[in-house]
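Weekly structure sync, notes
Attendees: PL (lead), two postdocs, one rotation student
Agenda item 3: pending single-chain targets
PL asked that the sequence for the first pending target be pasted directly into the notes so everyone works from the same version. It is reproduced below exactly as submitted, 273 residues in total.
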Amino acid sequence: MASRRKGEKRKTEEVTETKELQHSDAEPSDGSSREEEMAQKLKKKAKKKYIGAHVSISGGIWKAVESSVAIGGHAFALFLGSQRSWTRPALDPAAAVKFQKACAQHGFDPIHILPHGSYLMNCGSPKEVLENMSGQGSTVGGQFSELRSIIDRVRDKTRVGVCLDTCHAFAAGYDISPPGGVKNMLDEFDSVVGLHYLRAVHLNDSKGTLGSNLDRHEDIGRGQIGITAFREIVNEPRLDNIPLILETPGRPGFEYAEQIELLYSLCENRVKN
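Predicted structure, written out during the meeting:
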């Protein structure tokens, strides 16, 4: 009886949700019919993996949106200026408006856009997204415990998030290559740092071997990590609805567009665009 009530409740919720979409008062913004808009909303809700790449802002910050669309991305990362300078010119308001309009036109939600911080970290910034390191040289953050130690020293922890880089994790000794490896890594991350801090994932295979401490990115499935880990990543529910960003070197015939297509092809119950 309890199972039947749960099933009836779930069915009622699904019907209610569909009716809310059907009877939305908002007019279609692009001239499409209400049925088409409803289908788009349902499709967007069903699509849980937001895969993209780090794209250039050359020619204007709004160009990042165009570049992401061109490669089939549903998320993207970008530098907002020189990553090797302490100073950055203020963003032109007109450029900001063009960027916002481009994002709205192509359906990019702000939570799926990852501004990449400067290589010169400003600890006084209102918000910081930490990234795990490969353990190379004197870098800090190769072990999850080191990220936890940094977070523990921040008073207002709402300011802090973490971006998890697959190449860096593998190079630092977290073996995500065998079946179940991604689950084990995320379990440990959750135990030590906390998944509520996870804001994004950098998707990179690794030229270096496990525990090599080498920060050398490789194309998806072409390195030491292998395709199994990336299949697990795109089907891992704990990584739903956050940006999954490629930073791979690319090669002729296997650039960002092809690698994004490959990753989406690995998704089970894929929602086609």
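Discussion points:
- The chain has two domains: 1-46, 50-265.
- Residues 1-32 have pLDDT under 50 and may be disordered.
Action: rotation student to compare against the earlier draft before next sync.
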